Predict the 3D structure of the following.
Amino acid sequence: MVVNCVSELNKEKIDIKENFLFDLESSILILLLKDQTTKKNLIWATNEYEKYGENYSLNSEMTIWSISGTNGDIIKPRILKNKQEKQLRSNSKAEVFTPAWVCNAQNNLVDNAWFDSENVFNIEIHKGWITNRDKINFKDKNWCDYVKDTRLEITCGEAPYLTSRYDMISGDFIEPQNRIGLLDRKLRVITENVENEIEWLQWAEIALKNIYGFDWQGDNVLLARENVLISIAEYYEFVYKKILSIENLMKFAYIISWNIWQMDGLKGVIPNSCLCHHCNSQLSLFNTSKKSAVCLGCKENNIYLHNGIYSQIMDWETEKTIKFVSLIKE
């Protein structure tokens, strides 16, 4: 099958409604909003939503009430935003989204190196790909090691490199069997090698624990989290022809709340959390120190010296939290 543009935009499939998640199980949406570093919620970290009121300011937390109910259509994928909104995002945060065929080509480079072979999952064509339907051949390698191999998408936006539910540029929905994200590939490998549903769920959890992503803006983090969660649910339904249980959705949402996180990628801290004399807006949020505070990290451009809140991630092997910056070698 050739994956390319389809004739119409399928909004219902690509836009995961917060009201749907709330009605399904409010605890899932609560988890997807949680910032595991601060133990509070994600912050908006953008002025884009201030038009909706004081609870939508730059450093305000994203609450379950601010994105559900009558406000349930506020958060939406970039492809569904109007031209002015897209331009504002591009100008203010240099936000650029990548078409699925480019994500595929770059993810293929990762797998070419891992497998020491080309065209493992698909064959690239002009602005598209043809899915390889044969079972993935691991030769002298082990499929378990592939699932356990750690992958990270930096400044992940809506996480197109982790899961390609839809093309970020055209808006085309991509069926589970043709997806090319880093998590999607792991799920395919699991499907081809496990013997039953119980094993599938166990290995899907392992796969999820080995993909990571971060972004500055709170709405992007939420969209990325939703895409990863729903992609697993869609793949499960594709394989087993039934709906993933609430219990498993909750388990996966908890892992996702750790593995997809909010961070200033240049500083390794929660956005706007450094205390600087020229950053008055964040002082009121974190309720510390004075306007004359100086952040040495900001002053000296040293990622290890910031006085902001360093983002924490979970090491699932030890089940202990670590600062993300501790993984960065000088």
In short: The CA atoms of residues 189 and 289 lie 51 Å apart.
